[in-house]
Amino acid sequence: MSATPLPEGDWIRGISIRQPYAACILAGAKTVENRPARWRTGWVLLHTSKTLDQLALRIPLIGRTIRGRQLVTGAVVGVARITDCHQDPDGAPLCSQWAHPGAWHLVLADVLELPLPVPAPPHACGVAVDTAPATRSTTSHRRPHSSKRSRRSWRSRGVATSRSSCRCRDRRRSGSL
Fold this sequence. Notes:
The protein is of the alpha+beta class. The chain has helices at 21-26, 60-66, 148-156, 169-174; strands at residues 11-19, 32-35, 42-52, 75-86, 104-119, 129-130. Strands 2-5-4-3-1-6 form a six-stranded mixed sheet.
């Protein structure tokens, strides 16, 4: 690992990656992530999306890489540094066996797996994620307020659902939610 310091301030971007590709990145085998648009270099949280790519499990390269690893979904599982973002020229060989033609290739380095996955709600990594110690729940504002069932499902994922910290509490008390 290089001695590159983490970014200044309390914010870090996140990138959602479907399993089993996230497990391949954490194992150190997949060093290129494919995206349709350009990304800035720097540190990112590795968030696993809630969906699992079942067809990818049949690819021998992926099967060998993830053998014996748990495929966690819907959580932040690590941190990595994007060192480069490029597209391979037309007709040129791809930069990696993991690269897709025509896609932007995010070159990942300094990948660190978290000791335990941190449950994260959907789209939490699509915006800046506060890494400072929280005095109140910041994720409760992203959960839907449509029904008791949705609140229960968020609680089961470990997301704080405190009504006292929610900005919508006045509307909830008045019966508009």
